[in-house]
Design goal:
The complex is a heterodimer of chains A (425) and B (212). Chain A is mainly α and 425 residues long. Chain A has helices spanning 2-10, 14-48, 65-74, 86-102, 121-129, 132-142, 146-177, 182-186, 210-226, 238-241, 251-276, 289-294, 302-333, 339-367, 370-400. Chain A is globular, with a radius of gyration of 24 Å. Chain B folds into two domains: 1-88, NADH-ubiquinone/plastoquinone oxidoreductase chain 6, subunit NuoJ (Four Helix Bundle (Hemerythrin (Met), subunit A), Up-down Bundle); 127-212, no CATH class. Classes of the chains: A mainly alpha (425), B mainly alpha (212). The A-B interface holds A 12, 15-16, 83, 85, 87-88, 91, 95, 118-120, 123-124, 126-128, 130-131, 133-134, 137-138, 141-142, 144, 149, 153, 156, 160, 163 and B 1-2, 5, 29, 31-32, 35, 38, 42, 54-55, 57-59, 61-62, 65-66, 68-70, 72-73, 76-77, 83-84.
């Protein structure tokens, strides 16, 4: 086994094979992730709207629903409107898909699991994710339809504005970590004391100082907007623009537009995980799990080291999907903003906020005494845990009450005699 | 990167970039032209990545693809009287742009080919013989900063107003070296004029009360 492996590694064709395999793995992951996300979207939407969502295809939870949807879309008729610019109409979805997929090249899934460990990974990802919007505008323009054009133009205005605060929020943890290499944000420094290890939950950059904490929420808002998700989905506002920029699309082209959207949702969530939420770490171990199991770079046991890396990848993907789930939660909870409100949110609020955060984080490392800097993360972490427990307690408390009690205004059910569920006390 | 794969990848990317650049010129629909420009600039970024200049490549994508995006949006907003309008290019414009393009190409080609011969004469260094940074900028305290300066640093100092290149006699009979400060400033003012012009073209056209 060892000889075979070293023979493969020293072969001149090894780099090509490695490039091919990693590209295929990334495409495979992106597509499977999109399939899972669509299923999750339907389930989440159903539950939030008090329905069941898909239940039948593929057994108990309808988990094969997306695959069935995909097959239906593949056999659909491929329609190109007569008034469309055929070349741009065909090209648009591919540009969107490529822009979204390219970002995955630099995204690390684990300590050693990354296709290209770039020095400037986060900058590269932001750059290529911004090309996705180009595809959307081509889709909107090339369709030769006014609804599509309106959708595309709204998307352009939104993207050009939201890119600025998003990039500024990314700089905040970059200043703290002194690196743009995404792997370095989560990599454990072996020389650091155990309690300051990057893998422990209170050392994640979100708890580093008040500015990184705020930067996470600002970044996540901007990222939601950059994926054109509700409440920022003006580009596909179905109540006014039919389906917005993809009104004229059907079949596989429509499918690839959505692959791009779900791909970039995971990509921005992955960036958020790495920058703020400790990347692939569970948060309770003092060191990287692959190092704990198999020694540094698999020095003591190569198989356990591989197992540790697999655990890292699973944890990272689970974290990414959790953030994607929060995006879905927001989408099905909040109403859509108007276009002027979308622009106002960005230019009047998010942009000044992100500038203040950038200034603040620079001042923090320069002016705040070392003792405060050292113990602030623990206090922040404890405060967050306390807040989470209080929210949990409130939720359990509310779940025990009959619906309608304790809610203000028009939701108040007291005095409604015809309603069977809530009996006034 | 392997020495076999790199030239192959370079030729593929370079051919695609050049083809798309030609398509930018010949296509008549402004949005299609912007799309070809996107591919051309993306190909340039690809060459940067191939050379291992990740930062330059990513900046190329972020700045120029973002710039093309704005161009495209302006193209749609400013030129679209009807759907998919085409722009006719006159014969005179073709001739002028062909001459300018060929001249620029000539300058680039001469520069590109001369780099190799200069480096061969100087044991691999890119500075022209007898004209190192130490020699022509002793007073400006740039010497320490650019001991290992390559030809690009010389060009950069030319833009800052430091004399570079061979000396020639000025009107008073003193030897002097050329600098590029004035042309650089002219170009930047020109860009400002273009910016104001674009804002003027894109402004909301309201009729003044009273004249209507």
């Amino acid at each position: 086994m060892g000889e075979l492996l070293s023979g493969i590694f020293s072969s001149p064709y090894w780099p090509y094979a490695l490039a091919l395999v990693s590209a295929m793995l990334l495409i495979g992951f992106m597509l499977v992730s999109a399939i899972f996300s669509v299923w999750m979207e339907r389930k989440v939407a159903g539950r939030i709207q008090d329905r069941l969502g898909p239940t039948r295809v593929g057994g108990k939870f309808g988990w094969l629903q997306t695959l069935a949807d995909g097959m239906k879309l593949l056999v659909k008729e491929d329609i190109i409107p007569a008034s469309a610019d055929h070349f741009l109409f065909r090209l648009g979805p591919y540009i969107a898909l490529v822009g979204s997929f390219l970002a995955f090249i630099a995204l690390p899934y684990g300590n050693n699991v990354v296709a290209n460990d770039m020095n400037i990974a986060v900058f590269f990802m932001l750059a290529v994710l911004s090309t996705e919007v180009f595809g959307v505008i081509l889709i909107g323009y090339g369709s030769g339809s006014k609804w599509s054009l309106f959708g595309g133009m709204r998307e352009a205005a939104q993207m050009v504005s939201y890119e600025v605060p998003m990039a500024l929020c990314v700089i905040v943890p970059v200043i703290v970590a002194h690196t743009m290499n995404l792997s370095d944000f989560a990599r454990v420094d072996p020389s650091a004391p155990m309690l300051e290890s990057r893998s422990l939950m209170w050392n994640w950059y979100i708890f580093h100082d008040p500015f990184t904490f705020c930067a996470f929420w600002t970044y996540f808002t901007c990222a939601t907007a950059s994926c054109k998700r509700a409440p920022f989905d003006l580009a596909e506002a179905e109540s006014e623009l039919v389906a917005g920029f993809h009104t004229e699309y059907s079949g596989f082209r429509w499918l690839s537009i959505f692959m791009a959207e779900y791909g970039s949702m995971f990509a921005v969530s992955g960036i958020a995980c790495l920058l703020f939420l400790g990347g692939w770490h569970i948060g309770v171990l003092p060191d990287d799990i692959s190092n704990l199991l198999g020694g540094y770079n698999g020095a003591s046991n190569i198989y356990l080291w591989v197992l540790g890396n697999v655990v890292n990848v699973v944890v990272f993907i689970a974290k990414g999907w959790t953030l994607v789930f929060i995006m879905m939660w927001v989408r099905w909870t909040l109403p859509r903003l108007r276009i002027d409100q979308v622009m106002m949110t960005c230019l009047k609020y998010l942009l000044p906020i992100s500038c203040v955060l950038l200034m603040g984080v620079s001042m923090w490392s320069l002016l705040v005494p070392y003792v405060v800097q050292k113990y602030f993360p623990w206090g922040m972490f404890a405060a967050c845990i306390l807040l989470g427990l209080m929210v949990l307690r409130q939720m359990i408390f509310w779940a025990k009450e009959p619906p309608g009690t304790g809610m203000p205004g028009m939701w108040s059910m007291t005095g409604m005699s015809s309603y069977q569920g809530a009996k006034p006390k | 990167m392997d020495s076999v794969a790199q030239p192959i990848l370079f030729w593929i990317i370079a051919t695609a970039t050049a083809t798309c650049a030609i398509a930018v010129v010949v296509s008549q629909n402004i949005v299609r032209a912007a799309t070809w420009l996107l591919f051309s600039l993306g190909g340039t970024a690809g060459i940067f990545f191939l050379l291992g200049a990740d930062l330059v490549g990513a900046t190329q994508i972020l700045v120029y693809v973002g710039g093309t995006l704005i161009l495209l949006v302006f193209g749609v907003m400013l030129t679209a009287q009807g759907p998919f309008i085409t722009m006719k290019t006159g014969a005179a414009e073709w001739v002028i742009s062909a001459v300018v393009g060929l001249l620029f190409f000539g300058v680039l080609a001469v520069t590109a080919f001369s780099v190799g011969s200069v480096a061969a004469k100087n044991d691999g260094r890119l500075e022209p013989p007898g004209r190192t940074v130490k020699e022509y900028a002793p007073k400006l305290n740039l010497v320490e900063a650019s001991k290992s300066a390559s030809s690009s640093a010389i060009l950069g100092q030319g833009f800052l107003g430091v004399g570079v290149g061979p000396a020639h006699l000025n009107a008073k009979g003193k030897p002097e070296r050329a600098n590029y400060l004035l042309p650089f400033e002219i170009v930047s003012v020109h860009l400002l004029v273009v910016l104001i012009g674009a804002a003027y073209l894109a402004r909301a056209k309201r009729r003044r009360r009273g004249t209507a």
